[in-house]
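User: Reviewer 2 asked us to show a designed sequence for the structure in our supplementary figure. I'm pasting the structure tokens here. Could you produce the per-position amino acids so we can include them in the response letter?
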């Protein structure tokens, strides 16, 4: 887990993370000003009810998402550019068994197959769609480019992106015998947070991603993410920055569903010289599944760096 001190942050700039979020506005840290309306392994509610969502749908908190910058979440090689999702899809390979997928991009992305990209390098912008679906980024992290039963030689279900189709379906039936995580899809927020500061440094800093929100502060956090020792609330002001002392992140391949399966807490240094735990990814009822559980996730804090 990373550690940091306020004095180190004051005398040096924040460390660029090894992994970061996939979308942002020019001049702002990735993830700031966005919300995940359909999270990983949540019901896709109004768009594909009855299906699990295999990634995350990122939307601007205010205004239209079209034109937002889309960034590689980590260093890797572009292995696919194509499709009409609607819009282009870019796939980046980060390891032998780890890929990131960016869907609904404008039709001339600035990258090509075989190109090496760095964390935060632009791979496209969000398409302005011509249908009734709001403009957004469909983002996945998974262990495969082609998986036989998903998008390879013998797809099990008749989704539009079927046989030998690298982008894949983006959904999986709730009635299927296994969850998306069992087939190789991963919780993107968990994957990114687990690896963001893997080269632990005393200069890890987070910033406010949802200005105007208030987040409860806690003295302690147990291993399953249950807080205790209430410390009041912190008002999240735009541009505020906090040294990151410790973090608690859920598994890459969770066996639970719904937005409440997200687990991302930061222990941050506060302006008064104390420290406290704050929930950095909060379930939201902006979207709710058929059983009433939240399907959306509000990102409250994000790594403080600008690509």
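Assistant: Here is a per-position design you can include in the supplement:
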């Amino acid at each position: 887990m990373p550690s940091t001190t306020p004095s180190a942050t004051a005398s040096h700039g924040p460390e660029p993370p090894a992994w970061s979020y996939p979308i942002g506005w020019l001049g702002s840290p990735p993830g700031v000003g966005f919300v995940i309306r359909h999270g990983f392994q949540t019901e896709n509610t109004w768009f594909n009810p009855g299906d699990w969502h295999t990634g995350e749908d990122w939307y601007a908190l205010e205004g239209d998402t079209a034109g937002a910058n889309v960034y590689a979440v980590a260093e890797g090689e572009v292995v696919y550019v194509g499709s009409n999702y609607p819009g282009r899809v870019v796939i980046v390979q980060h390891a032998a068994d780890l890929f990131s997928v960016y869907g609904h991009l404008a039709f001339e992305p600035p990258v090509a197959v075989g190109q090496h990209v760095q964390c935060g390098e632009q791979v496209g912008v969000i398409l302005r769609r011509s249908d009734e679906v709001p403009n957004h980024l469909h983002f996945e992290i998974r262990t495969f480019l082609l998986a036989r039963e998903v998008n390879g030689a013998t797809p099990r279900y008749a989704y539009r992106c079927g046989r030998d189709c690298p982008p894949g379906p983006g959904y999986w039936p709730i009635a299927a015998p296994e969850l998306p995580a069992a087939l190789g899809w991963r919780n993107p927020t968990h994957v990114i947070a687990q690896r963001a500061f893997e080269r632990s440094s005393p200069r890890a800093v987070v910033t406010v991603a949802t200005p105007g929100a208030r987040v409860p502060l806690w003295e302690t956090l147990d291993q399953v993410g249950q807080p205790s020792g209430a410390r009041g609330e912190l008002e999240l002001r735009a541009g505020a920055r906090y040294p990151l002392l410790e973090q608690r992140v859920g598994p890459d391949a969770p066996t639970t569903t719904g937005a409440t399966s997200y687990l991302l807490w930061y222990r941050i240094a506060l302006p008064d010289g104390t420290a406290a735990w704050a929930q950095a990814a909060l379930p939201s009822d902006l979207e709710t599944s058929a059983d009433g559980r939240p399907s959306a996730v509000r990102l409250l804090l994000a790594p403080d760096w600008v690509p």
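For the response letter, you might also mention the following. The chain has four helices and 23 strands. The radius of gyration is 19 Å.
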